[in-house]
Specification:
Elements: H1 13-24, E1 35-37, H2 43-50, H3 53-56, H4 68-83, E2 87-93, E3 99-108, E4 113-120, H5 129-145, E5 149-155, H6 159-167, E6 171-179, E7 185-194, H7 195-200
Parallel strand pairs: 4-5
Antiparallel strand pairs: 1-2, 2-3, 3-4, 5-7, 6-7
Helix pairs in contact: 2-4
Amino acid sequence: MSAPPKTRLAVAAEEEMAIRAAVRAADLSLLGARYHLADARHIEGLIALLSDPAVSDPIYDLPRPFTHDVLSTWISDAHDRQARGEAILAVSVDEDGDVAGYSYFTVWPERSAAELAGAQRADGQGQGRGKTGAARSFGWMFDHLGVRLIGLTAAIDNLRSARVIEAAGFLSQGERRSVRPDGSIRVSRYWELAREQWRSRGQTGA
């Protein structure tokens, strides 16, 4: 299960309400024309995507097994959480309309903080596309959702994700214990990035 960042910010009620409203009305087109809110139409595509161990094995908080019922519940839960202003589950599709990746944005409005988990199909990785897509997502979280802090985790041996995270300017905060949906523990590397740090690097959500 996702956990909020270690750093706790003071957040006024007005800021919390604004973040919840932004999550409920999130404009995924700002991430790209092929991003969509996940729904029942995408279940089979998600099963195909996540059934590849190279895609899903490094991700600790995915619901398992990857069956129609399990992923249907996952999507329904994400919709409920979005209605509360606390999460967004998006998919990206290829030119044929097949699911090519997913992004799960977990948001803690009362802490002005968020986390991103996701993966792309193997043929969508490499050539800098991961770094570009991640940077766009981080900027969208800061500028469109309005959070001031993002915390990220990655498996100790997930060097590709670590490179993408550190290239975006995230600062290592050591390790943290991540809880899988089945209650087991995974030790993860952990990073944080504040909105001011992101903007000082000249980066935006564009």
